[in-house]
Structures are given as structure tokens and as C-alpha cells.
Amino acid sequence: MKRYDAIVIGAGHNGLTAAAYLARAGLDVVVLERREAIGGAAISEERHPGFLYSSCSYVCSLLRAEIMRDLDLSKHGLRIIPYENSTVIARNGESLGFFHDPAKTRQSIARHSRRDADAYAEFNRDLYRQCRMIRPLLLETPPDPTSFRLRDIKGLRKLQKAFAQLGEDGLAQAMQFWTMSCGDFLDRYFESELLKGSLAGNSIIGTALGPYSPGSAYVLLHHVMGDLDGHVGAWGFAVGGMGAVSDALAGAAREHGAEIRTGAEVEQLIVRGGRVEGVALAGGEEIHAARVVSNLDVKRTYNRLVAPSDLPGDFLEAVNNFKIRGSSGKLNIALDRLPEFPALASEPLLQRGGILISESMEYLERGYDDWKNGLWSREPFLDITIPTHYDPTMAPPGKHYMSVFVQYVPPTLADGPWTPEKRDAFGKTVLDTIELYSPGFRDIVLDCWVRTPADIENEVGLTEGNIFQGELTLDQLLFNRPVPGYAQYRGPLAGLYMCGSSTHPGGGVMGAPGANAAREILHDAKIRRAA
Question: How far apart are CA 344 and CA 38, in angstroms?
């Protein structure tokens, strides 16, 4: 019977990243994917004839440039086009645009508040100072603050140095970013509700927090720490949809000899004497390996694949206390033609980036109130993109594809589980909302694929449909993610590693958890082989 060096469970982008790095280092790797298609949440699917949807994740920014270079993803077909502008629109016909040209952005903000136009440069300076401190830590294993191992001591010193370089003011601001609400933080800089509503959108995406919830300021920071072509905070579209990211990673893994199997659902781990020795598939097949790497979230890994008797009780309790709360939905829409937004009539180029429906802090907070009451937001936050502006291959000639990310949507409703009827009603709420800002929108809809948190959980395997595999709050970051004492991609079972977004540095199509986990696995393998 063949014995692999490593089994990777789940062909999401982090699992594929880990597999590519391990295979590149010479390990014999097999990736096992439950579904018939690879990619997890980073996948492209044709659900309506001629239309290619980015069915879950929808834009690129967080994918680490180091990973793209290491794995030569451009060689494997990955091409990302930065989008030029973005905007927030209001029901009264007002808009506020963010342009590639800073002077135009300043002019747009000044139409609402000259004071805010001046403050925006200061805000960006403070924001990107924090980004510069954090970004080098993304591809680092978080040090264990209770350990006296040399590598942990060095890691703590590096962390200390990174914070010290901020200076006294920057350090105070860092603590504010990590603990304050986004609303309180933005109130320090701005007065325009439309501007604050737009900026606060990044603090709630994928997060079960409101804009005035403590800790939401860090989520804003998390969303702007990516870069494209050296431009910090820039966003872009992957040509061919987000599945192109996964396809490129799979191509890199296969180039170095990794095997990828679809339709291979792992039912449980094979554990003997406190060590994981392989996996058992749903059909009964057993596959053995020196090590197993789980791309599933921490709850699915330890609650579904491992018997409770094989785990320490306090560890299992900590796993169950890890917060993974669903709050997002998604609509993929095929359009007969481009929609018209009266608020953008004088600036049609603003349609080529993201279009936010996020009018004010109060608007977002009311949506969060609905979520807390077990309802989808009656007036939802929407992040609308039309990738076919840049990639016409995603729709037939003259037609367009629209992606709509929705916040807030509970995983279970106050009146019980999701049903097809409730899903349709949720979709109607979103379409009706878009119609308010784009009269006649419904008339050009050819197809609408509605996805609730329950759909995302059942289809993709994300607990409660949480796109980050766990909340990005201070108690669940760095050496606390996912469990204190087990934040270095390992758990209490020997031979078992984690590489998904439940681990540092968290969610988004980043690849960092997969790359970091692979580095730790190779470190352990080198030590064992040397011994």
C-alpha cells in the first residue's frame, strides 16, 4: 500500500498553496477534495449558459505577492487586473468616488466636506503605517509567548521590534486599531456620513460585528493590507474569475508532482497512539501518510474528523469556544446589459470598480440589528462589482456578470432554518434594494443565483458560511488563532497540521496560512530526517 509524505484535506486555495510548497520541496503529496471541483470558496462556475460566475470570493488583493512569485503563478495562467475606481452611492442620488488619481478623490470628498478632504490624507497615512507594520508578519509563524525555544524568542523580538518602530504615537494607534470599533475610529477623522459609511464597509465584510462593535477597526485594517503591483490596498479581478487563482495554484502543485483527487471526502482521521497516520474516505478507502494537513476550519477538523476520546478535554473546549459566526450572503447575477445608476451618470467610469450601498454608519448598524434578531438585513450593505468591464470572457458578447456581496445574513433565521422560499425572499430583498439605486434593474436580470450562509456551508464547507473560518477579533489573532498554545499550525495530535484560514493570519484569498503551514511541516520533516 502506497504511503504518502503528506495528505492535504481540502483543495481550497490554502490547501493548494500548502500542497504546492510541500511538493516543490520534494514531498510526495496528495490533495483530497470532497467536491468534484477544486477551489473551495475561490471557484468559478458556469451556472447560466455562457456566464462564468465567481461564486463565492470575488476580488483579489490579499493574495501574497511572495507566493505568486515563489510558485510562479503567472506561468500557470493567473492574471490579475487592478480595478481603477470605486464608489459609494446614496438613495438621494449622491455619490462619493475613490479614484486612482488622489486629486480626483480629494475633489470628490470635498464636495461633501472640505474638512474630510484634508483629513483623508492623514487617515490613509495612519492606516498604511499600520499596514507596513503588520504585512511582514503575515508570512511569519506567530511566536508562542509562553515558550523558551530560541525560535519563539526570536519571533517575539521581531514582533517587539515591529511595534517599537511605530513610535509612541503609532503604538498607541495600533492598540486602538486592534481594539476600537471602526465607527469610533472613523469619527476621529471624518464628519461625512457617506464617507464613513463607505470606509466602514471594510470593517464588517464577512464579520459578525457592527461598525460600532469593539474590534471592528482591525477588520478594516485587515481588508486594506493587501497590494497589487506594489500598490497597498489596491484590489483587482482575476481573469477567468476567482477560480483562476485556484487553478494556478493547482497547476503549480501538479508541476511539482502533487496529486489532486476530487470526489474524495475524508470521513475521519486514522489515529493510533496519539499520532495521525492517515485518513479514511467516505467510501471506506484508507490512505496513509506520515502527516495530514487539514484545510478545514478548526471546528470541522477536530469535531468531525477526530473522536473526542483522542483529544484533551481542555483543547476540545477551546475549539468549541472559537467564534465562527456566519453573516454574509452572495448573489451572482447574469445581466442582459449594463445597469444604469443615476448617481453615477456624471462619472460612468466609477461603475468599473466596486459600487457600495453603505450610506451611513446608522445604515450599517440597523443592518446589524436585523442580524442580531435572526433576520437578514432589510436594508442590506451591498458590495457590487461587474467583472465583465475588465474580463468580457465571463459573459456572452454584450452581456454582463454582476457579483453582489451581502451583509448581514444570519446562518439560521429566527423562525428556523433556511428554506428555498426564504432564500427566494432574501434574494428579492437584495434585488429590490439594487432597484432603488438603479431603476429598471430587474428588467435586465437574466439569471440570479442566491447563496445564503447555509448554502455556503453545505456546498463549500465553511462553518456557518463564515468566509474567514473564524472572527478576526483580537482574542482570535496571532498566537491565539485558533487556540492558545496551538497557534503554530499544529495541534495536540502528532502528525496533524492545519493550513486553513482558522490559523494565522486569517481569512481572505491570501494563501499565507497555507504557505506558513508548509514551512512548519518542512521544518519538522527536516528535523526528523536529520535525526
Answer: 38
